[in-house]
Amino acid sequence: MAAIKYKPTTPSRRHMSAPSFDEVTKSTPEKSLIVTLKKNAGRNSYGRITVRHRGGGNKKKYRIVDFRRAETGSEKVIGIEYDPNRTAYIALLENAEGKKKYMIAPDGLTAGDTVYTGPESDIKPGNTLPIENIPVGTFIYNIELYPGRGGQLVRSAGAAAQLMAKENGMAQVRLPSGEVRLVRLNCNATIGVVGNIEHDTVKIGKAGRKRHMGIRPTVRGSVMNPVDHPHGGGEGRSPIGQPSPMTPWGKPALGYKTRNKKARTEKFILKHKNGK
Prior knowledge:
The chain is mainly beta. It contains 1 helix and 17 strands. It has one helix spanning 207-212, and strands at residues 4-5, 17-18, 34-36, 61-63, 73-81, 90-94, 100-104, 114-117, 128-130, 139-141, 143-144, 151-153, 161-167, 170-174, 180-184, 188-191, 269-271. A hairpin with a 2-residue loop joins β13 and β14.
């Protein structure tokens, strides 16, 4: 897939690019697998903003994606669709009984292909099987952390993890961040690399396109007042007045680790993403 480049008819068009959607073969979603998505503009159930810079954006329906892949057997790929709720493309599947479902589409999967779920499945993109049945060195995605709960790891566009080793009922999986983590062998994973691999090369080009995504402007802390941000205040362009940059809530920014070292899951991480 190659990104579409626009002619520089305006300053914002000069560097703008968009995905070509070459992999997409189906333009309308399956009505039985979509639900209304209520907007909350970054607010929690109390109406308080918990995520800043959210609001507006185009209307969109949520596609119900099957991350569990619990039903064994074969399913035919009806088409590849764009999903406005995620960076990856999704594939519409149909089994022999006519039941339809969505899955995260791997790179290379096309309409008319057949995907399999179960311990006896072949090692081919789109097939889902327990990690204990997958050869070491295979690239996988949509990885479960708990058997039967559904894939929680490696689901974004172009992402893939690699199965490094298997021993003592656990598998060592190297995640896209570089972290090496232990995962139970009876957890399911899907073979392949998540599709839409050139998603990260797309250039937004203009502010309005971000607003269409539901992302509002971000203001620098150094132009705020002291009551609003630790960097605020001063006459003209002033230094931040701190030894190092701070968040709006006074916590260190730029590389400050927030993970609890006593977390229950710490024992499953063999190597952190920072190499330690």
